[in-house]
Amino acid sequence: MTSAVSGFSAALYKDEQNRYRVTPALGSNRDICFACKVTSCPSIQIVVAGSNTSLSVSVIDDDVIVYSATNVGGTATSTALQIVDAVNADAGASALIEARIPPGQTGAGVTGALDAGDVATGVAFVNLALVDSGDHLTFQAAAGSRYWDDDLSVTIEDGGVEVTSGFTVNHLRGSVTFESSMSGHAITATGTRRSELAFEKILLVYDGKLKIDGREIDTTSIDDDGWGNSISGRRSWDISASAFYYTGESDLPDVSDTLYWKIYAIKHTKSFVCMGTLQSLDRIVANPDKAQERAITIKGNGEIYPET
């Protein structure tokens, strides 16, 4: 049993492989991702202080401090894009970190202050409230708090008391499913998630193909009056396409790297999130009349999650 969609165009993003720090989902085009470039990575801070000051960047003991520009009233005026450009243009800071605007944002908003904090392998969350999906069994994290790191432990609590059995965790969806009804219970989670603000756009997919296979299990019996009958067993998926790199965007990871991937269908509002392994990357001879073309195949590790 196979379901396939061919000929679609989409933007393909990958999860940041290095340690990083992001602003706390400020929205309004104000967010920034700082990705580490060295083994011993610095703390990162944005300071808003003084009146009528200019934007500047300093590196003190390998810690990066950004001083936002301010107006005469002492209010921050530096936009996210201006901060990104200033950090990446500073020789000392850019040797330690790369600053970038998250997917889907323009950087036109004013970021403001950011307390000093270290880069990490993700974003820690504590006592994250999960919402009953309606069946009193599955409790789901809100959008923006999903994609839990499956390499790190997740603690589930019921009314502040840790629960250690009787449930399964879906790290990709950021959900917990219990074996028996938990109607009226206050379910929370503590752990580490991957941040969508740290996803990187790496290429634009043309003539792509998303294929989902289900191994067919024959269930034909005498009750089927001579007709064949079957159900879908183990499922798998893969994405393959020819692709054009965006100028200046991040390069692809190494073949065999396993990462979170996100696919935005260009002509639709739906996106897909998945954990997958880069299986192949074929370099096609460049045509001088168009951008460099490459073919890519990603094989799924677990489910592919369609978001709305």
Keywords:
21 strands, 2 helices, four-stranded mixed beta sheet, 5% helix, 308 residues, mainly beta, Elongation Factor Tu (Ef-tu), domain 3
Summarize the structure.
By secondary structure, this protein is mainly beta. It has three domains: 2-14 and 199-307, Elongation Factor Tu (Ef-tu), domain 3 (Beta Barrel), CATH 2.40.30; 20-118; 123-193, no CATH class.
- Integer-rounded radius of gyration: 23 Å
| SS-derived structural category | mainly beta
Q: What's the rounded overall pLDDT mean? A: 87
The H-and-E topology, N to C, reads as EEEEEEHHEEEEEEEEEEEEEEE
Structure description:
With 308 residues, the chain is mostly beta strands. Helix content is 5%, strand content 48%. The protein is built from two helices and 21 strands. Strands 1-17-18-21-20-19 form a six-stranded antiparallel barrel. The protein has a four-stranded mixed beta sheet with strand order 5-6-4-8. Strands 9-16-12-13 form a four-stranded antiparallel beta sheet, with no helix packed on it. The chain is globular and about 85 Å long. The protein starts with a strand and ends with a strand.
